[in-house]
Amino acid sequence: MKGEKKKVISLIHHDFEDLELWYPILRLREEGVQVDVVGEKAKEQYVGKYGVPAYSDYSFGEVDPAQYDGILVPGGWAPDKLRRFPEVLEMIKKMDEAKKPIGQICHAGWVLISAKILNGRNITSTPGIRDDMENAGGIWLDEAVVVDGHIISSRRPPDLPEYMKAYIEVLFR
Questions:
Q1: Tens digits of per-residue pLDDT, 147-172?
Q2: Whole domain around residue 85: which residue ranges?
Q3: Structural domain includes residue 31
Q4: Which of 5, 117, 150, 161 has the greatest number of CB atoms lying within 10 Å of its CB?
Q5: Which positions are catalytic?
Q6: Per-residue exposure over 109-142, b if at least 16 CB sit within 10 Å of its own CB, e if not
């Protein structure tokens, strides 16, 4: 498979948008990519907005972003929790500095805002946080997917096929 030896972090916390967590994980695994689900605690059950559970493989402190090829941030209400952890913001900053793919969808832009990496970058999100994205210096576009270098952003669940096609393309450059 083309994704063998590729590793991606998928962040998780309670109230994630179920499709925005699972669809990217499953698509990447179909490509042979190892996806590690990383949360506040290892081996913890997290429940999505619609009741679908997922378990973390590792805690934030157990992973080294340098050992991974990319990172995914799901939407839902989880990003508001995720951005409160210095370890998460540090992961995002390190991925950004290394120009590794950073995928964010829907409300996940909040994490990138808190990591202070959006200034001057083309980005999209759910329209509900457009002002937040622009106030952080992002150039917000109302498109299904926006790719600005190694940052891949998307608006909402119906955009997932285009989002993951773009993410996979950037991951395998």
A1: 999 999 999 999 999 999 999 999 99
A2: 7-171
A3: yes
A4: 117
A5: 107
A6: bbbbbbbebbeebbbbbbeebbebbeebebebbe
